[in-house]
Amino acid sequence: MPATTGFTSIGAQLKLGAGTGPVVYTHIGNTTNFSLEQSADQIDATHLMSTSGYREYKAGYKTATVTFEGHFDPDSTVQAPPDGILGMFESGATAPFQADFSGADNGGVGAPTTLPICAFDGVVTQFSITAPAGDMVTYSGTISMSSSPVWSDGTP
Q: Taking residues 9-35, what's their average pLDDT?
């Protein structure tokens, strides 16, 4: 059986950027998982000469979101207002983000080297804090991308 070419999520990071000029990205601490999702509107392009018996479609506008979850820490500057992820939700401001897989797979052993970083601008459009009995207080949210995601190896 061939060995897998995949990698684990250990060491992957969701980061929030700040600053003008070169953006400085900071890991959003205590993140337990995040997911990048992309889709495109479906435009019906079927016409009377579409003889295959199937509708024809074209891709329309694209939408991309990142959903995330983690352990809530109100003392974390990258989570709390005014400049953290919760502050981004409250202000409605567009901010730079990164999904960084360059250190994934247990600190980079076996991590991807070709285009492991996805950078994008986004708006935090949903944010929740959950306090279940007998468990960690958690946060979850959604970042709606307002730019095309750009995959790179992280070099300027």
A: 92
pLDDT tens per residue across span 103-154:
888 656 677 778 899 999 999 999 999 999 999 999 999 999 999 999 998 7
| Residues 6 or more apart in contact with residue 68 via CB below 8 angstroms | 14, 28, 31, 33, 34, 35, 140, 141, 142, 143
11: Cβ–Cβ under 8 A, 6 or more apart, which residues? 103, 104, 105, 106, 107, 108, 111
Torsion of CA 48, 51, 52, 53, to 10 degrees: 60
Distance (Å, rounded) from C-alpha 91 to C-alpha 63?
A: 22
